[in-house]
Amino acid sequence: MRETLGGTTLAAADVAAGYFRSYSAVGLLAVVGVLFVAVAFGAGRLLRPVVPTPEKLLTYECGVDPVGEGWAHTQVRYYVYAFLYVIFAVDSIFLFPWATIFAAPGYGATTLVEMFVFLGFLAVGLLYAYKKGVLTWT
Asked: Could you give phi then psi for residue 4, rounded to 5 degrees?
């Protein structure tokens, strides 16, 4: 099977070889990164002193000895605020590529409608959170 690329006939094997050659730098970088992390953890394990004592094996929390059960009540509203932050952070991540595509010729109306649908879903979620009283700090 042969393809024509700019007037030159290339074999499928040549195309595949060029494709994999272009990703060899990415693969090499990934291997170097994994080796770097493995060497760092190995060096840390070899160089650190290991002297276990009862004090070191005790559960430690801010300098206070653990007394009683490890169960503590946490208010749910902090998690809700974190979820709302994540929702709007994801929204801002999608707005930047949309702004660049919106300026491209031929994509204006389509991307505008798609973004307003996306923003509509987010607005419904925000309205739901407001109606449930999640956004009031008490």
From this structure: -105, 125
Give the integer Cα–Cα distance in Å for 15 and 21.
10
Q: For 138, what's the count of Cα atoms within 13 Å in the CB-facing half-sphere?
A: 6
Nearest alpha carbon to residue 15 among 2, 6, 25, 24: 2
In this prediction, residues 115-135 reach a mean pLDDT of: 84
Q: What is the DSSP annotation of 78-104?
A: HHHHHHHHHHHHHHHHHHHHHHHHHTS
52 contacts 41 by C-beta, under 8 angstroms:
no
* pTM for the model: 0.39
pLDDT at 28: 93
Distance between CA atoms of residues 60 and 68, nearest Å? 13
